[in-house]
Amino acid sequence: MANLNRIVMGVASVTAALAIGYIMQSGSNSHPQLANIKPQPASTQRLALNDIKLTVAPPTVEEDPAIVPDQDDPIRHAAATPQLDVEPIADNPVLDMPATACDPVMTVAPMPAAMVELKLVACLPDQRVTIHHNGMMFSDVTDDRGSLTVRVPALSQIAVFIADFGNGDGAVAHTTVPDLADFERAVLQWRGAEGMHIHAMEYGAEFGQDGHVWADAPGTADLALAGQGGFLTELGDRQGPEDYRAEVYTFPSGHAARGGGIAFSVDVEVTADNCDREIGAEALQLSTDGSPLQVRELVLSMPQCDARGDFLVLNNLLQDLKIASN
User: What is the pTM of this model?
Assistant: First the structure.
């Protein structure tokens, strides 16, 4: 196993000071022992991570951590995406307005595993578009005919989707997702450089074993529908350097074949695009217990560029799950 460099950081949030540790690991083939976050019970928390120091000593929490001031970062705007009051949505005059021949038109339809198939048609070929849904957002690109089709994990039972082309053009659509209450969802979203990943360790799985669900082993919706395990959905076009991206882990807690635990971690690779700078991200979590969508914002000061290829591993940014058998 590669030698580990330990990192010490200061942490602050608007609700409480949180003790957060993470470690930097060289290489990508081994998985280190993870440090812990002990979140306070709150539906929304903002985390500011800065003042990283490389040291061989065990990690400690800096005193008097600095709170990152409010600024116009796009991820925070994503969290503030309005939770639309959709009870009277059928009578909403904006949604019922007829479209002209070249107005973008979007339709959404429920699919198995609480997914939604989104279809967008516009007279805008090869055009970048940002999709908003219940605080989650991701960027994609229409094809040469101005169309886009993508499957999106729903985060609300009455699911409203907004397409924004950034030039005044856009579209809105909605649908009902009747089976959402059977599924747990964990979302990691960010803007810009590659290198962030959710790792879900199902039923005590170790790194690289069966039950370790992540981008390189995403699982399938069919297995989830059979109650056998979770699956990962990647959202967003991976070519634009400033695009919005998201990973969504889904687990069928409503019909799981067996009980047990699921442990989450998030890792961030140090790359040429993100080294020696601050990066922002958000974690969203939807539970089957009926609680509101949990949102946590993260601001992370990345190490110097000579650490390229190493990984920062954050434990408990997402809350671990306890699954009861059905």
Answer: 0.74
Q: CA 35, CA 28: separation in Å to the nearest integer?
A: 18
3-state SS, residue 221: helix
From residue 65, give the alpha-carbon distance in Å to each of 12, 86, 93, 277: 6, 40, 48, 18
pLDDT tens-place string over residues 205-223? 999 999 999 999 999 999 9
E strands, 194-277, in order = 196-202, 212-213, 231-235, 244-251, 260-269
Q: How far apart are CA 284 and CA 301, in angstroms?
A: 21
Helix (H/G/I), strand (E/B), else coil: 93: helix
Distance CA 133, CA 274 (A): 26
Contact status, residue 193 vs residue 209, Cβ threshold 8 Å: no
The H or E element that residue 4 is part of is strand 4-12
283-308 per-position pLDDT tens digit:
999 999 888 999 999 999 999 999 99
